[in-house]
Amino acid sequence: MRDTQHVADHAHRYRQRTAIALTDFGIGTGQNTPGLSPVMLLLNGQKMSPIRQRRAVRALLLDNDQILLVKAELPDGRHCWMTPGGGVEHGETDQQALRREVWEETSFVLNGEYPLIWIRNHLYGDPPRQVDQHEYYFLIRTSIFDASMHNNPAEGELEVFRGFKWWSINEIAASNELFSPNKLADLLSNLLAGAPPEQPIRIGI
What are the residues whose beta carbons fall under 8 Å from the beta carbon of 39, sequence distance 6 or more? Predict the structure, then answer.
C-alpha cells in the first residue's frame, strides 16, 4: 500500500510539474505561476472559479522558409511542436522577455528590437485552474543555428522537452504531428508571401 501511494504521489507531482511547464510553453493546464492575475467570473450572481490572465511572448525564428520549433510532451503522452517563448515576468517589457526566453530555450542571443506580427488569445485548462493566455509573436530573421536548452533554469520545462527541429513550411503542411498554433503552415505561408504586416494580425488557436 505504501509503495502504491508513493507511485501515485510521484505521478501527481509529475502531472503538476508538467502542467506548470506547459503553461510556460503556452499549452496545457494552468497553474498558479508568476505573472498570472485572477479574474473572477459571475454567473447568475454567483462567484465562479478564477480565470488567470497571462501575457506571453513567442519567437518566430525564421531562416528563409524554415522555422525553429520546440517539441514538448503533453500530459496525455502526445507531442506538440511550438515556437520558443514563455511568460513575461514582472517588470519586463515584451522585448526584454523575448530576449530572455530565446536565450533560455535556445541559447541564441538576440540584439535589437523585433516586429510584432501576430497576437493569439486562447483559454485552456479546467476549472478551477483556467488560464487566458495572451501571446505576442515576434518575427526574427536569422540563419540556422544549433539550439540548446542548456541555459534554461526551469526544471519542469526540461522534463517535458523532447527536442528541436528546423521545419520547412511544406514539411509542416504535410505532417500529421500537432503544432501550435494549429494553422502554423498557412500562417507562415501568408507571412512569407509579402511584407510583415504594419499592424499585428490576430490569429486563431
Answer: 50, 51, 52, 53, 132
Q: Is 94 exposed, middle or buried (0-12, 13-18, 19+ CB in 10 A)?
A: middle
The CATH number linked to 123 is: 3.90.79.10
CB 160 within 8 A of CB 72: yes
Segment 5-59, tens digit of pLDDT: 333 443 444 444 455 555 555 554 333 333 444 454 454 555 556 788 999 999 9
Domain membership of residue 47 as a residue range = 2-203
Domains held by the chain: number: 1
What is the three-class DSSP state of 118?
Answer: strand
Alpha-carbon gap, residue 144 to 165, rounded angstroms: 10
